[in-house]
Design goal:
Two copies of one chain form a homodimer. In chain A, about 50% of the residues lie in helices and about 10% in strands. By secondary structure, chain A is α/β, with parallel strands linked by helices. Chain A has one domain (about 5-205): 3-Layer(aba) Sandwich (Rossmann fold). A five-stranded parallel β-sheet of chain A has the order 2-3-1-4-5, with helices on both faces. The interface of A and B includes residues 174, 187, 195 and 204 of A. Chains A, B: Pfam families: Cytidylate_kin2. Chains A, B: One of its GO terms (molecular function) is kinase activity.
Chain lengths: ~210, ~210
């Protein structure tokens, strides 16, 4: 059987990243998050700053309604037009995720991997969310500033993820139909989110 | 502890209703779906046809962007203005669901009960979806017509549910953040959806 992959998309402040780490530890597999960007930069030779820019959405908005950006998986060679395009930068990240999954079972957070792996067997695609107040509270641990500033940050981050998802994967980032399992971490707590994912892996026969 | 309630929202053709029935049978509790409409009609004295019209969205669209329709739970008396309004018809359905939950543990399908019960303890709110092809295939068992006609029906039903949800509950009907658990019935199959819900009840301590 193929290596298993748990993909986790999460709202900022929901604790989804923490859940992913706890899950990986419990399963004894690797956990991948932002380091995929560095790996994709290293492999492609494209400056890591450009990855950051795509992520930050500076150029996502410009072509938001341009459906040609939807991920198809084909890489553009360094000597071809579009090598440093948003699309190719996304494609390189997707390639790194795909290569990792070929080598080992793992937990991967973010980067629209739920879309990249939508037809992959032995894959469980999770979305983790939490109530607004919970997210604000949790964000205080990481962001300094007034509640108003934190709330502004959260709204901006939701919008950024939504734009990013719409551009590369189509549809809505928080739409349940893009996932196999969606959990409310605010209601469940992190430990039980891990339990819920393990239970779902068991139900789906993922191992 | 309060009676437990499992609310199920589902895409037409996802098999969510079947899953709800199987779940109720396995748990040995009542299953409520459309009969809530008749019960609300009986209790209020409002013609059952008016309930159907609200559901069909004939008048939902007109005030789609009117936020005053969001469910708050207050009933309007027969001698007051708005007694047969869409809002009051929704409120009566919500009241029936609330009364049922006071009397017994149960599974309730549809009617935005996930929103009505959003703060209710001992409640698990499930959204069941399935891939488009699966839904078309499943719908053939219930609807006669060409694939094109079935697809048209499905698009219309999704739109209807989306409009209905937006009007009475706000936000998007298929948005994961409105639920505690979202499952892909096409990938899992119905039996495993039931298993997944039972597993989640266990994780959440719902009983």
């Amino acid at each position: 059987m193929e290596n298993f992959v748990i993909t986790i998309a999460r709202q900022y402040g929901s604790g989804g990243r923490t859940v992913g780490k706890m899950l990986a530890e419990k399963l004894g597999v690797s956990f991948y998050d932002k380091q995929i960007i560095q790996m994709a930069s290293d492999e492609s030779g494209i400056d890591v700053k450009l990855f950051g820019q795509v992520e930050e959405g500076s150029s996502v908005k410009a072509s938001l309604f341009n459906k040609t950006g939807l991920y198809k998986g084909d890489l553009i060679a360094p000597d071809q037009k579009g090598f440093v395009s948003d699309e190719n930068i996304f494609n390189y990240q997707a390639k790194i995720a795909t290569d990792l999954a070929e080598k080992e079972s793992c937990v991967i957070v973010g980067r629209c991997v739920n879309y990249v792996f939508k037809d992959r067997p032995n894959t469980l695609r999770v979305f983790i969310h939490a109530p607004w107040e919970f997210r604000v509270e949790k964000s205080r641990e990481k962001i300094s500033g007034s509640d108003e500033e934190i709330e502004k940050f959260l709204r901006r981050d939701d919008k950024r993820k939504q734009d990013y998802y719409r551009k590369f994967a189509g549809g809505d980032w928080s739409d349940a139909t893009n996932y196999d399992l969606c959990l409310n971490a605010g209601k469940l707590g992190f430990e039980k989110c891990v339990d819920a994912i393990l239970a779902q892996m068991n139900v789906m026969g993922i191992k």
